[in-house]
Amino acid sequence: MAKSPLTGGWGDSNSGGHFGPYLKFSGYDAVFFTGIAEKPVYLFLDNGKAELRDASHLWGKDCFVTEDTLKNELGEGVENSCIGPSGEKLALISCVVTRRGAVAGRSGLGAVMGSKRLKAVAARGNPEVPVFDAEKVDQLRKDHIAAMRKWQGMESLESFHKYGTSHVAEGFAHSGNTPVKNWGGVGVNDMPDNTGLSGDAAIANLDRRTGCWHCPIGCEGRLKAGQGEYKYPAGTRRVEYETHAAFGTMCCNSNTESLNMINHLCNCYGLDTI
Question: What percent of the chain has pLDDT over 90?
Answer without folding.
Answer: 94
